[in-house]
Design goal:
InterPro entries: HAD-like_sf, HAD_sf. It comes from Gordonia namibiensis NBRC 108229. This is HAD family hydrolase. Helix content is 36%, strand content 24%. It is globular and about 55 Å long. Helix 3 runs parallel beside helix 11. It has eleven helices and 14 strands. The strands form four sheets. A five-stranded parallel β-sheet has the order 4-1-12-13-14. Strands 8-9-11-10 form a four-stranded antiparallel β-sheet.
Length: 290
């Protein structure tokens, strides 16, 4: 096998109703792929479900997400089971659905050697926020943290000042919609994918010169997109707002869930799974099914 695919999930492969947009949700045939607290949360179009299933059947696909393993496991992702998945923004490698403790120990050593600890970051962050615009402060996988905010009430100067503090202390900060993440600089999706790629080469699953194709929409995907041989991002999300680009990058012509279909068509074309087809855009009202 001479190709490998790594893809972000939220707002790249799967979409909440708000992320999809009311117009798309009302006109596209969709399938619910995530239930949370007994309610449908995330969707894919039926076309995307078929495309991802076919892709995963033919080439190694690595779901690559900032979600923790528990959050990732809520998703009924087409193409499963996946031999490898990357969770916690690179802090975890899942092998046949099971956490790899050796990788986690390596990540923890890297964090300890390169910057502030999580407790120090949390202490500093709490001095900079208040309940007038922050709904919650959450810790993910005892590795990084994020705020859930009321974006309209967020102080204009907060993000840049927080990014400056994080940069000095070996962390990065980024905002994706209502969430503001703080993550150790040494914990990246690209590092985890490099390790997965090494293992697949060692196992003979892919050739040493296998091309890596990647997709993502947020700042926490940027290192993965730069690491890939070729990459694609949707015409929405944090990277779109930043006008971010890198050599070998494709940007979709569509937004929302249709961008997810376009990304999968792009993967199919480059992996030669089958000739790219026109994405279906059904006019029937969307429905969520569990």
């Amino acid at each position: 096998m001479s190709v490998l695919v790594a893809t972000d999930l939220d707002r790249t492969m799967i979409y909440s109703q708000p992320a999809m947009g009311e117009a798309q949700f009302a006109t596209l045939d969709t399938v619910c792929v995530e239930i949370y607290r007994d309610a449908p949360l995330s969707y894919m179009t039926t076309t995307a479900v078929e495309l991802l299933s076919r892709l995963a059947d033919r080439v190694p696909v690595i779901p690559t997400t900032t979600r923790t393993p528990a959050q990732y496991e809520r998703i009924a992702l087409p193409g499963a089971p996946f031999r490898y998945a990357v969770a916690s923004n690179g802090g975890r490698i899942l092998v046949d659905g099971t956490d790899d403790p050796e990788w986690r120990h390596q990540v923890e050593r890297g964090v300890a050697e390169t910057g502030a600890g999580l407790d120090e970051v949390l202490t500093e962050l709490r001095t900079r926020v208040d309940d007038s615009w922050v709904k919650s402060l959450r810790v993910a996988d005892e590795l990084f943290c994020y705020l859930v905010v009321e974006a309209a009430a967020q102080p204009e100067e907060f993000l840049s000042a927080w990014q400056d503090w994080c940069a000095v202390h070996g962390w990065t900060a980024s905002q994706q919609g209502r969430k503001i993440y703080a993550t150790p600089r040494s914990v990246t999706k690209s590092a985890a994918i490099a390790e997965v790629r090494r293992r697949l080469v060692d196992d003979g699953a892919i050739t040493a010169d296998a091309k890596l194709y990647a997709a993502g929409d947020g700042w926490l995907d940027a290192d993965l997109l730069e690491f890939a041989d070729q990459a694609i991002r949707p015409r929405h999300g944090e990277l779109e707002l930043l006008g971010w680009t890198t050599p070998g990058l494709t940007v979709t012509t569509t937004t929302g869930a249709l961008a997810g279909v376009e990304i999968l068509e792009w993967f199919h074309d480059r992996c030669s799974v089958r000739p790219a087809s026109d994405p279906a855009r059904p006019s029937a009202r969307a429905v969520g099914t569990s």
